[in-house]
Amino acid sequence: MDERKLHAKNVFKVVRTVLETLLILAVIFWAVWSLVSYRSRQRVLTEEAELDCVMVNSDEIVAGYKPTVVASGPHFIAISYNGITNVERKDGKIVTKAAYEEQMQSLKDSGYQTITQQDVINYYKSGASLPEKALLLIFEDGILNTTRLAQPTLWKYNYIATACTYAGNLSDENGEYINAREMNQLKNTTFWEIGSNGYRLSYINVFDRFKNYFGHLNTHEFLDIHSFLRRDYNHYLMDFLRDENRLRTESVEEMEERIAWDYEKMEEIYKDETGTVPPLYILMHSNTGAFGNDPLVSRKNAEMMESIFAMNFNRQGTCLNMRDSSIYDLSRLQSRQYFSPNHLMMRIWDDTGHSVVFRLGNPEKAADWERRSGAVEFKDRKIILTSMPYGESEILLQRDLPKDLELYVRLQGNVVGKQTIKLRSDANGEGGLSVGLLDNALLIEEGDKEEPLFKLDLLVFDGGPFVSKAEEERNGKIALAETIIENDHDEARIQEAREELEILNAMQVPGIADGAEPFIPELDIDDQDDRTLRLRLKGNQISVWLDGKLVAEDLRVSADAGNCLFLNAAVTRGTERFSQTNLSDDVYDGIFAELRISDPDGNELYGYAPPILEVEETAVDRFLDKLSGLFNWARPRQEDGEL
User: In Å, how far from its chain's centre is CA 550?
Assistant: First the structure.
């Protein structure tokens, strides 16, 4: 190489090194500045603080919520969320961010336009019109992290939502709930309005599932012992205070004074902290006869809420609100952690009769199946069947299968419901053999026979029952005493709990091994499941494995109506579960994941398990990960909460 070229090359290397060094120094300076800035501002919820969460160009950011053109809609729907989380979970009410975003997209694709609280007031007070598909969107329970996760999607779709708060949390600068400063910052973004869930979350007249009186509990105490309850309790505004015999312990005047004090305290805090009371109120808990479990309590609640608030959501379970509804007796549908987007849209369709968009997912995978009923989404490694209300969803595999085959699938729908595979059926789904799960039992059924060929209680399969009723009852009392000691402020009550705990720990109660009656937990519509099912069908015999264990070997079968295979999901209406917050769910999602079908020699006949793409991590990726970790540490962390 000639000397001039070598010199030029060395100069280029030096310049490149200098530029790279300057770039790295700039990034480090920016990182340090961001760290200081985030720490100094603490928990700031302005649009600018959230821009780094929105992966779009700056010119695509909506400047503010823009009201939609008003049509002549005769009603509106209300959808609410108890919270949004980044953490995958199989229990509770809080919805994952990914599921929330999919549901918002389905609402947008179906033509729903958000409205404001003032739109609702004008609709009822002056007969104003609403958009044809009007949606009031609500986020309950006042969890700050929920608003952070929800806001980018509101920007994306030009949606406005109500963030509900608790008055008792507005002065808390370090908690997980929205405080007064953050409430004002939310309003300034123009994508948020403020509502109220009340003064505080507290419970009275609490009884456990064995009808033991647990008294009156604050939020932390209630959450600690909630798993030992059956929903035999009241929110503190919904009834008289009662004793272990369910008799009143306060007069009518005392009840009215107690309830009035809470409303007046709530009004005082909102006015002191923010200058005004939010128009929208949600009375806890919903779905009573009117505004309480007792007519006298209901009357007092009505008097107080109507003097302070412009509207009240009093019911949960349906989303439709008509013009002839009372503005103080409105209803909203709370989305749950197990709702697929199609589940939510099916519930809305059932309530309203609106034309809605159901997600299909992967069109190539969908082409392999014929939809017979309900809705279906082909998503990632899953086939999600959403039933009709109080009905079923069914799809037919569009290919011939041999009589003998092997099948593997993961069944991930909720425990309460039915998800089955039909084999050797005719084209109408008649005859053949069905294998699947029904309300925490494995069933093998044949044709139209009333009795199953095989049934396995999955509580027994999992090793249960695990404790006796006597043990479960004592465990609940121990949990109550422990949470009172940890969370209560009444010294006399704490001392009483310490004495009770000492007695309970010394108490000997009979277990299952002693012949005591076993405790069988009640199934709940929120309980999710994940079971692996494998079957081998050969001639007139079937063998079935569940979670890797052989549970039915060479069971004799005779059903042979055809060569068709169906997937089916259905609501089990006889197993509705009452809930104070969710009366029932008449739609069911059957989830069939990683479905594979092969012949007896192992040759694949059908496979629905798309490969997981793995991308090699580069040095740049690792550097950005470290920077991301730095910023995550620098920002105040908000843990996902739930009530």
Answer: 34
